[in-house]
Amino acid sequence: MMEHNDVLVDLSGCAPDGAAPGRTVTVPAYGFAYGALVLPGLLAALCGHGVRTLTVEVVAACVRALALITPADQMLPSVDARLLVSAVARHVSRALGHPVPHRDHHR
Questions:
Q1: Is 10 a residue whose pLDDT tops 80?
Q2: pTM for this one?
């Protein structure tokens, strides 16, 4: 998993100590509700495409999606914003040159 990546982001706090010495980032135990802000949409776009490396273009796509759905009076959208997952997935898919996932109208 670490072969093509600079850091290991340990979202669940269970990475072995020697997995990526000096290159492991853990999510704070509290006060970090926005840590999951782009993750569902990012994973939705990456799954099934064999993408193992996050590039600057992919991160920039996540940022563009957040900027587009953030209300003018806020710094970031709500974690439960209705369009969050689909917007991030759509922008990441475009950045990767993959077909844009269809929006699920049944949610």
A1: no
A2: 0.62
